[in-house]
């Protein structure tokens, strides 16, 4: 589910003047409840985001402002089949100002698509780890599509199986699976970044846009103004889990990786934690940081993932 609508984030000084969204959450978020937040007096299930983005403050001249997109798993519904079996035609990558774009072009309309962050990308069906540049990884799974799967009588894809870039965020795109009409890709990133996914027509394409590094890049708050609202609510007794680095790291594992029961252990370093799935050896290390250093009783944010 998408955490919140697209927004524009300003530099930190400008963000302080943003209009703050109302209401707060009262319990750690999960991957299943990341759409909107109840009002401060509500007793309903809490979530991680306000349902509307903060207002964009005027921007200082000469400052590049990047988009703020969700980092939770995304799904695109299947489209009616047309034009025969969709075969991968091209893998392209490019930079578009404040974001970087990956384009997967097909010969026909493809099926359902799922995109999510994973600690490592595995090959399908061998389950071997796919070596990718970067420190954070997206898995893209396209149903009802093929590249060179030999069991299918097609004109196969003849392009490269991996594309390496020199971009700041998107480092590499590789085919990670081509089995039984399920086509998978791994995208290596230089950091955990917000992204959006879209289906385009004529020709049929899957577009993945990844935000370049914006002035604000922590989780779960998208802006300094939002973090201040959360701190005020926390001071009033709301969302007590925000005062625990371990609970914030646990919420991150649930919301970003979709792990319902993550294993969270302290790692080397201050407020650094190792997040793992209960039934997998895959893991990721995150660092929780105190948002406002002037206060000892401050909320935590996830400020680094590796």
Question: Could you list some keywords that capture this structure?
Answer:
306 residues; mainly beta; Immunoglobulin-like; 2 domains; 4-stranded antiparallel beta sheet; 16 strands; 9% helix
What does this entry look like structurally?
With 306 residues, this protein is mostly beta strands. The chain folds into 2 domains: 7-65 and 215-305, no CATH class; 74-211, Immunoglobulin-like, CATH 2.60.40. It contains 3 helices and 16 strands. It has helices at residues 12-15, 224-235, 245-257, and strands at 7-8, 67-68, 74-76, 88-96, 99-106, 113-118, 136-143, 162-164, 170-179, 182-189, 195-200, 204-211, 263-266, 272-276, 283-290, 300-305. The protein has a 6-stranded antiparallel β-sheet, with no helix packed on it. A 4-stranded antiparallel β-sheet has the order 4-5-12-11, with no helix packed on it. Strands 13-14-15-16 form a 4-stranded antiparallel β-sheet.
Apparent shape: elongated
Can you give the helix content as a percent range? under 10%
- The fraction of residues in strands falls at 25-35%
* Low-pLDDT segments: 1-24, 32-66
* C-alpha termini separation: 24 Å
Major sheet: 6 strands, antiparallel
CA-atom Rg in angstroms: 20 Å
Number of domains: 2
Strand order of the largest sheet: 3-6-7-10-9-8
Global mean pLDDT: 78
The counted number of beta strands is 16
Order of secondary-structure elements: EHEEEEEEEEEEEHHEEEE
Structural class: mainly beta
With helices defined by DSSP (H or I, 4 residues minimum), what is the helix count?
3
């Amino acid at each position: 589910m998408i955490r919140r609508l697209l927004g524009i984030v300003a530099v930190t000084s400008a963000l302080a003047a943003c209009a703050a969204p109302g209401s707060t959450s009262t319990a750690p978020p999960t991957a299943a409840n990341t759409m909107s937040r109840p009002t401060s007096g509500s007793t309903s299930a809490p979530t991680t985001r306000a349902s509307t983005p903060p207002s964009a403050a005027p921007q200082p001249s000469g400052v590049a402002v990047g988009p703020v997109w969700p980092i939770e798993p995304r799904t695109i519904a299947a489209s009616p089949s047309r034009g025969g079996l969709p075969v991968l035609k091209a893998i392209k990558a490019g930079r578009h100002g404040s974001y970087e774009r990956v384009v997967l072009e097909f010969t026909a309309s493809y099926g359902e698509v799922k995109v999510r962050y994973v600690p490592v990308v595995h090959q399908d069906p061998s389950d071997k780890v796919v070596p990718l540049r970067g420190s954070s990884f997206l898995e893209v799974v396209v149903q009802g599509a093929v590249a060179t799967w030999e069991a299918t009588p097609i004109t196969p894809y003849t392009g490269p199986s991996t594309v390496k870039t020199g971009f700041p965020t998107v480092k590499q795109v590789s085919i990670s699976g081509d089995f039984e009409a399920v086509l998978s890709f791994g995208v290596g990133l230089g950091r955990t970044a917000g992204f959006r996914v879209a289906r385009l027509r004529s020709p049929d394409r899957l577009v993945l846009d990844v935000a370049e590094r914006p002035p604000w890049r922590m989780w779960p708050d998208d802006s300094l103004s939002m973090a201040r609202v959360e701190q005020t609510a926390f001071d009033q007794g709301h969302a007590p889990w925000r005062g625990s680095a371990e609970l914030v790291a646990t919420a991150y594992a649930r919301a970003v990786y979709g792990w319902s029961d993550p294993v969270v252990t302290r790692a080397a370093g201050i407020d650094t934690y190792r997040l793992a799935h209960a039934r997998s050896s895959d893991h990721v290390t995150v660092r929780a940081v105190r948002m406002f250093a002037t206060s000892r009783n401050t909320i935590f944010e996830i400020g680094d993932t590796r």
